[in-house]
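User: Predict the structure for this protein chain, please.
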Amino acid sequence: MAIIRYKGDYKALDAAALERWKGVPPAVAGDCLNRTASMAGRVSPLHPDMRIIGHARTIRVMAGDNACVHAAIPLMRQGEIIVIDAGGNPDVAIIGEILVTAAKHKGVAGFVIDGAARDVAELRAGDIPVFASASVPAGPHKGFGGSIDGPISCGGVAVMTGDLILGDADGVTVVPLGQAAAILEAGEAHVRKETDMLAQLAAGKTTAEMLGIEIPEVNAE
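Assistant: Here is the predicted structure, written as structure tokens:
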């Protein structure tokens, strides 16, 4: 089967906006997106210190095959995040040290894969953040096809090329590009609100008080 390539044009956020996004954690962005845009917990960083912020480039691979990833890497641009729908398959590694190193030389800023990686010790020690849903030594086949820059599902969340990808120790949130400006404003306000809540907790207030949750009376029966 041939590799299908879709048109992958999008208008990237400017450097100032991306810098502001560094202050909005994936958890906060997910809250601001009505808790519908955070990937399943199986998609997690190979090392808890790994962080990613950047625009997605989407890849969908056929089961157990990574030819599509090899074909996509020459198309990548500086600072992009490769997001791979591997169907959550935990039994065949789609990426490893060779592919991640190749992507690094193209300026790729990170990988997110709903599927398996290998060479995990090397990837943990490297400087390209990798988020995956499994690790396994078994390697992939090549040549069964897939798609580049088409719509995918990764960790149970729809992803389009150009969407903003946020990742940290908690996992990954996807911010649709068309909503990025509004969610950035809401996210920064949410961060300020949480900072204020922490200050109130330090002053002796309870979360129940802050959230308007009544303490139930004792049932006399």
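The chain has seven helices and twelve strands.
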